Amino acid sequence: MQDADKATKQTITQAYESNHFNEVLAETLHLGGLELTARVAEIAGINENLHVLDIASGRGTTACFLARQYGCRVTGIDLSDISTKLSTHKATVQGLAPDTGFLTADAEYLPFADCSFDVIVSECSFSLLTNKEIGAQEIARVLKPGGTFAFTDVLLTFPLSQDLKTNLTFSCCFSGAETKAGYLELLEHAGLAQTYFEDHSKTLKKATYQVITGYGSLSAFWDQFGSKADSCCPVSGDTSGSRKLWLRMFREGKPGYGLFSFIKP
Ligand SMILES: C[S@@+](CC[C@H](N)C(=O)[O-])C[C@H]1O[C@@H](n2cnc3c(N)ncnc32)[C@H](O)[C@@H]1O
Question: Which pTM does this prediction carry?
């Protein structure tokens, strides 16, 4: 892994290790909460006979929910060692270990053999991958033929201009998001075929409303992260101009949120 990539990945994981997102997203670290996770499970046909991989499993809430609710075996991977430990503890306390287990790993280098999983899920995380082409190839590689990859993520209504992309100095699910066509291209190029799409942009509107009413402004919310997440979501004191670019990203891209499902032929 190149040093720049390593630093970006570290910034991203640190932002999610903090507790700030939980104040808005509650139990899960994705929009739509477990209600949307249940919809993902329904679309992916998750049941007790399947082995599910949760890519970028955060604090293990989704993995434990899937195991409890559908009786499936779940493996979660996340780049954050802190999150892996929290998730393992959660599964143990809930009596779900060892069938629900967690590993610290990079989604771009999955430590599994080809065709290992019946279903792969990922929530609000594919957009964070620094190399989505490799991430998509890894998903296609470890998924069994006939298996489903279902994910929810931030999605841009309009692609960002090249000028803006070149100048963005920070990484987050918004700056890393693709348009619907962009996600499709990446995953189809990796050999997967799209089976379903559902728009969930109202969840982003709801979270934005919660942030504004709870903190006074989006800026006030991001400011809590302080220097810990400087290059992830530029804070008020920013003098490099990142903040302006951050706002321009919202104006140009008009982000929403979507649920996608793909099958490995
Ligand atoms: C928005 S949180 C979502 C967590 C979880 N999927 C959920 O919905 O609760 C994003 C997660 O992606 C993880 N992450 C970011 N880049 C990653 C990578 N390259 N490989 C594995 N995990 C990654 C972060 O550590 C963080 O836990």
Answer: 0.91
